[in-house]
């Protein structure tokens, strides 16, 4: 494996031709990479202020600066600079940026989204190190087609948090413990931990994640970025290491809502190899970017559920109630109608048992049994069986469990296999009739009796909730949610450590988000509302990480241009 040190060396010896024709000044023109948007990067590339090679070099150096502490990135694409130089050549030959908005732009993929290249796709496990896929995942193929540069793989909670009984968020055997950047040893939440941390401090333009039960929403919430969880079926899961076909969805972690729209636009669409995409209700996807206007909230009807918010579900990254009320005022001022105190009867039962208030089954136990049954079926049939090379010959969850418990690299028993143990003990996969009875019961209980029932009854465009409170309902139903930064925990916040690990769950400066939770395939409207809200609140830039890389484009371009006499590149630097 190419180490980070090797990368550092490679970057220093690379002598790249000077391509730029503009004259950057030492301070002007270069977008700060902590907050750079697609528009900023597009402008710089298209005006030849910097190149994709510069951008990739800058991001790699930024990763090198912080990764020993944050462990956000597990692998850097050994071909990233080469691909960047190809993009630069294409751009010089003439591209239409309107058709390929992501052309030459570096992104990170969660380490469960396969690419057919030098990179591994392991879900954080040594079990799949060295395994080979027959082709790119559909998502990776679409992103490449859109011109994006796949810069590397982001760390994650191992196996998308399916393995342990009490999950170590952000930890994987292969990637180590990812931590957040807003206070030391910050629990990054999971499972798209590395994706969120990387987006939050500018280790790439943006990152792709997956969400089964909060895996995009919770890291987005805790890391001061926009987490976009689309409807299950809007994005293909072909060659994405599965957890649950009913709940898995590929989405985005970005610094702005509009950037989420750009990234989603490149990823959505039907795929014969994932028949959940048959449910997509349009031939041509809506224009999510165009949906981002500053009147996106006007006339919208938004539900607020006090009983959902009363459920004590999240000991970490607590939402400040005052910030939430202020957000409601902003929504009203933007022309939205708030329908307060919408009853969501299922919310009280989450995540604990329903204490006799609902049907006679446990919601959480039933949801876990569904995703567990899916995992037993989906891991072999939708991934392991498709591998071209499978070095450890693992072809079932049972074999994976054995490997994990036997291999000294996998951290057992400190990191247990309790969830898998349970799935295997129940022994029911998603072909069993009893699986379907639980699916029917859960869908009814979370849907018509609760979330979708309330949306319809009150004619709502979305529910607005502190992000953690949106997770179980929407993910249990496969519905879309967008989480937007809302605030940070105050300076007098008590420090709470996790029981099992070394992470800090709660401390001053911990970001939190607000979620817009809508019906199936309502993404266009969610983008409109979230964008308008984000423009009015503008929270993200006010929350500063305690650690972030120092490398900026100016330095990289300067280094490239020193001694280059061929054109006007960087004359300002000489
Ligand atoms: C992928 O894993 C293999 C096997 O361990 C290793 O040789 C290779 O360097 C890894 N790829 C990257 C990009 O790290
Ligand atoms: C997808 O195809 C499988 C196998 O052909 C079938 O059992 C399943 O019902 C289909 N699912 C959807 C959502 O169409
Ligand atoms: C159905 O859900 C219940 C929890 O309410 C669980 O105990 C049971 O194992 C589930 N059945 C199946 C077949 O998954
Ligand atoms: C699912 O369970 C059925 C019945 O036990 C079994 O025949 C089938 O092989 C299982 N499928 C997988 C992928 O484990
Ligand atoms: C996997 O199977 C192949 C072919 O049967 C065998 O050569 C190889 O040794 C096996 N690898 C492991 C790790 O068991
Ligand atoms: C690319 C990279 O630096 N990967 C590292 C991620 O973290 C693990 C565990 O700490 C290292 O072994 C990898 O080298």
Automatic annotation (TrEMBL):
SUPFAM superfamilies referenced in this protein's UniProt entry, alphabetically: Amidase signature (AS) enzymes
Cross-referenced Pfam families: Amidase
Domain of life where this protein originates: Eukaryota
Residue span, Amidase domain: 54-340
Keywords of the record: Signal
Signal peptide range: 1-22
Protein name stated in the entry: Amidase
